[in-house]
Input
Amino acid sequence: MSESNTKNNTSSVTSTIGEEYKIVAHVSSSTAGSSSGDFHVYRNLRRKETLRLEEMDKNDRKELSNNEFSERREQQKLEEELKVKKKAEQRKKNKQRKTHSEIRKKLNSKLEEETKKNKEEEKEEKNKNSDNEKN
Output
């Protein structure tokens, strides 16, 4: 029984000892060897930090280039819209000119016809008047 008691006692001691002693990162083990082991820890930390900074710089450059691209794209869209509007206005003006010129031609031809009719009527009246005077 005494052996079982000692086994139980040791198991209870180890469980409490394991809970008390946990591994803590970035702590040197002794003052005598602190400089030799800390260099590797420092080097790894420095490497991770430089990688993190490089990644941040890379993301910033990427975001900046994306912003520049979107600004250029918006500017090009605006310029293209202006060109399209200008061309549409030119087409509209040309169409109006064409329709107006057609209307003018029709009006001119009507005016010419009317003036011809009026001249003919005047001639006829003159002829009638001259015939009436002769009679």
